Amino acid sequence: MIHYKTEEEVAIIKESAEILGRAHGEVAKHVKEGVKTSFLDKVAEEYIRDHDGVPSFKGYNGFPSSLCISVNEVVVHGFPGEYVLKDGDIISIDCGVFHQGFHSDCAYTYPVGEVSPSVVALLKATKKSLYLGIEKAVFNNRIGDIGNAIQKFVEAKGYTVVRELVGHGLGRNLHESPEVPNYGKKGSGALLKEGMVIAIEPMVNLGTRNVVQERDGWTIRTADRKPSAHYEHTVAIFKDRTEVLTTHEYIEEHVKI
Ligand code: MG
Ligand code: MG
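A: This is the predicted complex of the input protein with magnesium ion.
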């Protein structure tokens, strides 16, 4: 069942998303060589709790942290920990905020120091695919139009789209219906109606699209251990417009690409 939101509810999600965007911005200041990923998690959690929010992920189905931190071949759901970032890594940081009863969800993949040109190109293409997906997330289109736009663009560049993990509706719950795959056929799937709030989050691999789950029950990595990128926004659909509720603005003040 899809929960449609009122304008007032979307306004609260937008507040939640502003806290989230600024938390991402605080984290972005510290994404560099020599930093331990557990430190980034601490920065995010403190910022969120100091600004009338609760980290959505911490405790969700037992997830231990406020951030999902996924380095290099890790696609999503990596744990922050003792790993120290090094020159040439890429790091995907995914975060959610719960504020006044509503969640927002947003992710970004950063280069650390000098990253190889082929991996920089993967990051740029994945980010671009997010916005191409958002362009199709308009009233009276269908869910499949979003995934089709993402898939067409990244596959034309020789990349692959992860199938096992998808975007999702969100609101009072972090994950709601419908699922929002990053692949699919034009004109297929649920109709996009006024009041739908969805997270669009392409996960794009340099090599094979196949992924495996590590023994910790969470960490998803590419089967061939080649790098993977992930960008995410939460958007709201209205008859006359689609609003991107989350922002990368505070991140992009600190990132070169
Ligand atoms: Mg997310
Ligand atoms: Mg999400």
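Residues 94, 96, 105, 107, 201, 232 surround magnesium ion (ligand 1) (CB under 6 Å). The chain has a mean pLDDT of 98.
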